[in-house]
Amino acid sequence: MKKHSRLHLPSAPARPGEAPDFSYVQLSAAGAVARPDVNARARDIGSLSIELVRVLDDAGEAVGPWHPHLDPADLQIGLRHMLLTRLFDDRMQRNQRAGKISFYIRSLGEEAVCRWRSAWRCVRATCVPLLSQSGRADRARIALVDLMCQLLSNTRDMCKGRQLPVMYHSKAGNIFSISGNLATQFPQAVGWAMAAAIKGEDHLAASWIGEGSSAEADFITPCCLPPLSGAGHSERGEQSVGNLDFSGICRR
Fold first, then answer.
1. What does the H/E/C string look like for the chain?
2. What is the mean pLDDT of residues 171-193?
3. pLDDT tens track for 36-78
4. Minimal CA–CA distance to 33: which of 59, 58, 57?
5. Interatomic CA distance for residues 210 and 169, integer angstroms
6. Rounded CA gap, 39 and 15, in Å?
7. Long-range pairs of 46-49 with CB within 8 A, sequence gap ≥ 24
8. Does residue 130 carry a pLDDT above 80?
9. CA distance 115 to 118
10. Which tens digit of pLDDT belongs to each residue from 102-118?
11. pTM of this prediction?
12. Considering all CA atoms of the chain, what is the largest pairwise distance in Å, rounded to the nearest integer?
């Protein structure tokens, strides 16, 4: 009698060329997910890990508690920066395809994420970005011509030829050098935040990570380091990572 394997390989809901069906995906209604207080405990916001925060409804209108209520002038500035990022990416990618620069990666789909930092005018934050978030650099008071010089590795290269193209950095703009490897920026972000906390500064370190990379040791280790060292205990008895609050981590 032939034995059947206990290994289960799920079949794809649709093959190339077939119409995909996403009816099995459970989505939260626009405006239905509650917005917790910024000082909420991690144990109280666990539901956010299985819910989808939707600000725009099917008609394109912002609804619910996550509606930022931005002024039209701020929305226009944000849209301009998003369009500028898209146009700069298109132009530079064409140069890469033509062989004028050796490497380039776009911020496609993350233009709005790249825009957030310039909106925080009153917050002193150091960005530790991902490779695909190079659009943050042109928000950090770096002239476009300087970004292009870094891509071309000429005499005005801010990295002095020590980095691949797109690996921008800016001390004045508080942009940590972009890393080409996923999740490797989290230890640096946590270390910077802990140093700021030790010096008594109220600066913030902001970093991002993808869903898959969060399983890497580069993410797990920095999460464990501050509690083990006794740093970052808050008044409510929980442990935080220096000036980097992991209860508000945003996964792409």
1. CCCCCCCCCCCCCCCCCCCCCCCCCCCCCCCCCCCCCCCCCHHHCHHHHCCCCCCECCCCCECCCCCCCCCHHHHHHHHHHHHHHHHHHHHHHHHHHCCCCCCCCCCCCCHHHHHHHHHCCCCCEEEECCHHHHHHHHHCCCCHHHHHHHHHCCCCCCCCCCCCCCCCCECCCCECCCCCCCCCHHHHHHHHHHHHHHCCCCCEEEECECCCHHHCHHHHHHHHHHHHHCCCECCCCCECECCECHHHCCEC
2. 81
3. 998 888 888 888 888 889 999 999 999 999 998 888 888 888 8
4. 57
5. 21
6. 45
7. none
8. no
9. 6
10. 989 888 887 777 666 55
11. 0.71
12. 74
The CA distances from residue 146 to 66, 88, 130, 143, 162, in Å, are 36, 13, 20, 5, 15
- Considering the chain, what percentage of its residues have pLDDT values greater than 90? 16
Contact between residue 241 and residue 222 where contact means Cβ atoms under 8 Å apart: yes
* Tokens linked to 14: 């649709």
Q: How confident is the model at residue 228 (pLDDT cuts 50, 70, 90)?
A: low
Type of residue found at 252: R
User: In whole angstroms, what is the distance from residue 163 CA to residue 44 CA?
Assistant: 42
Res. 192 pLDDT band, cuts 50 70 90: confident
In this predicted structure, the answer to whether residue 190 has a pLDDT above a threshold of 80 is yes
d(CA 2, CA 81): 63
CA distances to 55, 105, 174, 175 from 124, in Å: 26, 27, 8, 11
